[in-house]
Amino acid sequence: MPKVGMQPVRRQQLIDATIESVAEFGLQATTINRISKKAGLSSGIISHYFAGKQGLIEATVRYLLSNLKKVLIEGLTPTTTPEQRLMLIIEANFSRLQQQSETTKTWLSFWSQSMHDYELHRLQIVNSRRLFSNLACSFKQLMSDDDAKLAAQLCAAMIDGLWLRAVLSKSDENEFEHCECLAKSYVNSLIKQYGA
Amino acid sequence: MPKVGMQPVRRQQLIDATIESVAEFGLQATTINRISKKAGLSSGIISHYFAGKQGLIEATVRYLLSNLKKVLIEGLTPTTTPEQRLMLIIEANFSRLQQQSETTKTWLSFWSQSMHDYELHRLQIVNSRRLFSNLACSFKQLMSDDDAKLAAQLCAAMIDGLWLRAVLSKSDENEFEHCECLAKSYVNSLIKQYGA
Amino acid sequence: MPKVGMQPVRRQQLIDATIESVAEFGLQATTINRISKKAGLSSGIISHYFAGKQGLIEATVRYLLSNLKKVLIEGLTPTTTPEQRLMLIIEANFSRLQQQSETTKTWLSFWSQSMHDYELHRLQIVNSRRLFSNLACSFKQLMSDDDAKLAAQLCAAMIDGLWLRAVLSKSDENEFEHCECLAKSYVNSLIKQYGA
Amino acid sequence: MPKVGMQPVRRQQLIDATIESVAEFGLQATTINRISKKAGLSSGIISHYFAGKQGLIEATVRYLLSNLKKVLIEGLTPTTTPEQRLMLIIEANFSRLQQQSETTKTWLSFWSQSMHDYELHRLQIVNSRRLFSNLACSFKQLMSDDDAKLAAQLCAAMIDGLWLRAVLSKSDENEFEHCECLAKSYVNSLIKQYGA
DNA sequence: TATGAATGAGCCTTCATTCAT
DNA sequence: TATGAATGAAGGCTCATTCAT
Question: Which residues contact B161 (CB under 8 A, 6 or more apart)?
Answer without folding.
Answer: A156, A157, A158, A159, A160, A161, A162, A164
